[in-house]
Automatic annotation (TrEMBL):
Superkingdom of origin organism: Bacteria
Family annotation (InterPro entries): PAAR_motif (IPR008727)
Polar residues bias: start-end ranges: 77-93
UniProt protein name: PAAR motif protein
Region of interest (Disordered), residue spans: 56-93
Pfam families associated with the record: PAAR_motif
Length: 133
C-alpha cells in the first residue's frame, strides 16, 4: 500500500554521538556521549509538489537540529563543534518528485556525529494521507 509521504517541516529524530571533553585532575579526557537530534525538514525540498500543502521532502532534503547540541555533563565542551545538520538519506526508489525519491515516514536521515556523519536519525511524521512505495 505504501508509506506516508512527508513535506517540509516533517519531524526528524535521532541520537548522535559526539566527543565531549570531560575534565579530570590529569586533564581533559575526550569522551563519546549520546546527544538527542531533533529537527524538522527545512531545506532542499521540491516546491513543485506539495504534501499537506507544503513542499515535498526528498532524498537530499536537509534538517537543522534545534535546539543546537550542547555538551552534556560530565562534558564541558565539544572536541569538535557539531554541525547540527542532517540530510534525508533514504527515500522512495519508485516515486520521484523533482527527479529525486520522495521522502516518507521511517526514511533514514544522516545526522552530525563524531568522528563523521552517520545515519542515526529517521523521519517520524507527521503521518499524512499521501502514500508512496
Amino acid at each position: 500500500m505504501g508509506t506516508p509521504a512527508v513535506g517540509q517541516d516533517a519531524q526528524v529524530v535521532g541520537v548522535d554521538i559526539h566527543v565531549v571533553l570531560v575534565p579530570t585532575p590529569a586533564g581533559s579526557v575526550p569522551t563519546p556521549l549520546p546527544h538527542p537530534f531533533v529537527a524538522q525538514v527545512s531545506g532542499a525540498t521540491c516546491s513543485t509538489v506539495t504534501i499537506a500543502g507544503k513542499p515535498a521532502a526528498t532524498k537530499g532534503s536537509t534538517t537543522q537540529n534545534s535546539p543546537a547540541h550542547i555538551a552534556l555533563p560530565p562534558g564541558v565542551s565539544f572536541q569538535s563543534p557539531p554541525s547540527n545538520q542532517g540530510t534525508v538519506d533514504q527515500a522512495s526508489s519508485t516515486v520521484k518528485v523533482g527527479g529525486k525519491g520522495l521522502a516518507r515516514v521511517g526514511d533514514l536521515v544522516t545526522t552530525c556525529n563524531d568522528p563523521s556523519d552517520q545515519t542515526t536519525g529517521a523521519v517520524v511524521g507527521p503521518v499524512g494521507t499521501v502514500m508512496a512505495g
